[in-house]
Amino acid sequence: MTAIEISNVQKRYKALQALGGVSLKIEEGEFFGLLGPNGAGKTTLISIIAGLIRADAGGVKIHGHDVVSDFRAARRKLGVVPQELVFDPFFTVRETLRLQSGYFGLGNNDKWIDEVMEELGLANKADTNMRALSGGMKRRVLVAQALVHKPPVIVLDEPTAGVDVELRQTLWQFITRLNREGHTIVLTTHYLEEAQAMCKRVAMLKLGKVVALDTMSQLIRRISGSQLVLHLPHNTLPEELVPLLNHPPEDNKYSLRINDYAEVEGILARLRQGGISIDEMQLQQADLEDIFLQIMDENIV
Ligand SMILES: Nc1ncnc2c1ncn2[C@@H]1O[C@H](COP(=O)(O)OP(=O)(O)OP(=O)(O)O)[C@@H](O)[C@H]1O
Predict the structure, then answer these.
(1) Can you list the pairs that 250-253 forms with residues at least 24 positions away whose Cβ atoms lie under 8 Å?
(2) Least CB-packed of 15, 91, 124, 200 within 10 Å?
């Protein structure tokens, strides 16, 4: 079954085309990453999925339910952890979660609420007022709120932005468990390491368009196996090696694509011929960050 089906979604804010025809199918049980630089349109897309704003054209279905014409059914299938913290400060944590349960018509939900609070390290704050919680604790409540109706599809918009290591670990343990139990997870994050560790498949958005869509392993394979990073503070790279660059040099560090280790010899010989001294050299496996930078630079699809 398709968990989220996004068909040619378009959204414009006056002159700005925030989403220019996005289509994606995310299957049930996937751990999917939605990546892109600031302003790429991730939050806009998530808001449309959550039924918070309307697309100008195209549509979204959650487990087959249209998010506009069949809003209630679609919303029941979906839990969204938003970026921003908005709460009623006068309720306690438990009251906040009970209210949210009530919104979904779940009267007697305390067993699950207790479990969610336990998993997210909120149990000892259950009777604390929201206004007395630290930012990190509030963020935990935001996650708990999204999960209160045990939605089969969970969307997390930058859930770990500015949170401490402990919460990050607690959150990922719980989310991984939910994914193992069959929940579909969609994640946006600026931390590419996190996406690489968690997501099996990713879409990369740029200026409101999908510029890459692949499994993590295929994407990583797309950039040849490894890269040679050379720090050349006193020279520039010889002209003939420039085509090997993964992306423009940063701080005199040149990242060269290599297909097998034998190529390293040739590169070093060429530098020696040119009398170029190497300050530092590293051989690295390509990672998501390299691919991300390359795709954002070249816009290859
Ligand atoms: N309500 C709005 N009115 C006008 N422009 C908006 C509105 N919301 C978003 N935009 C613009 O639409 C574009 C996409 O924004 P969006 O927040 O979806 O990007 P994003 O990928 O989530 O970025 P970030 O990583 O910074 O959260 C941006 O150029 C943004 O300035």
Answers:
(1) 253/229
(2) 15
Q: Which atom of ligand 1 is nearest to the CA of 45?
A: 18
Per-residue pLDDT tens over the stretch 53-100? 999 999 999 999 999 999 999 999 999 998 887 788 889 999 999 999
Secondary structure E strands in 158-252: 184-188, 201-206, 209-215, 226-231
Q: Which residues line ligand 1 (CB under 6 A)?
A: 13, 16, 18, 36, 38-44
Residue 279 to residue 116: CA distance in whole angstroms: 52
User: Per-residue pLDDT for 300 more than 60?
Assistant: no
Cα of 43 vs centre of ligand 1, distance in Å, is 7
Four-residue CA torsion sign, 106, 107, 111, 116:
positive
Give the Cβ contact number of residue 72 at 10 Å: 10
List the CATH code of the domain at 224-285: 3.30.70
Q: In ligand 1, which atom is closest to the CA atom of 37?
A: 25
Q: Residue of the nearest CA to atom 1 in ligand 1?
A: 13
Distance CA 65, CA 60 (A): 8
d(CA 124, CA 132): 13
Structural domain spans, the chain = 224-285
Could you tell me where the beta strands, DSSP code E, fall in 148-243? 153-157, 184-188, 201-206, 209-215, 226-231
- Average per-residue pLDDT for the chain: 90
